[in-house]
Amino acid sequence: MIVMKSRYEVDLMREAGKVVAACHAGLAEFIKPGISTRQIDEFVENFITSHGMEPAQKGYKGYPYASCTSVNDVICHGFPSDYVLKDGDIITVDMVALNKGLHADSAWSYAVGDVSPEAKRLLDVTKRALFVGIEQAVAGNQISDIGHAIQTYVEGEGFSVVRDFIGHGIGRQMHESPEVLHYGPPHKGPRIRKGMTFTIEPMVNVGSYETKVDDDGWTARTVDGSLSTQYEHTLYITDNGPEILTQL
Question: What region holds the Peptidase M24 domain (predicted)?
Fold first, then answer.
């Protein structure tokens, strides 16, 4: 069931979203060669809690960290560790803030130092794919119009869209209905309506879209070792189009 959000609930999600966005802005300055992914996780946890909110990923289905830190061929759900970032790496940091029972979720990818032309183009295309999807998130469209637009754009740029991990409704639960695929035919699924809140979060690979999961049960990688990036926003649907809750 898709739960429409009240003004009160959206206000709390908006507050959480601004904290997430501000944290990402801080990470843009913090992330550089020589920083470990564990230090990034500590930065995220300290930032969220210092604003009176909870890092909702920590403890979710047993996940032990405040953020996911996914480097190079890791698509999503990468564990923070003692791995030290080096010049040329790319990293996606995914976080969720919980504010008085309401969630906001955003992932962002970062270049570490000087990256290859291929990595830079992947970052640019994936970010653009997010906004291509957001353009379709308007009342009256159907959910699959988002994914169709993303897939058409990404494959036209010579990259692939991950199938195994998707966007989702969000609110009092981190994951709610509807499911938001980043691929597929248009004009399918629930009609987008005012009051809905959901994420769009395309994960884009240089090579195959297929995935594999490490023995930790969380860390998802590209099957061919190719680079992967992700960008994600939480949206609130209004009569005047989508409001991005996770940007400053």
Answer: 12-239
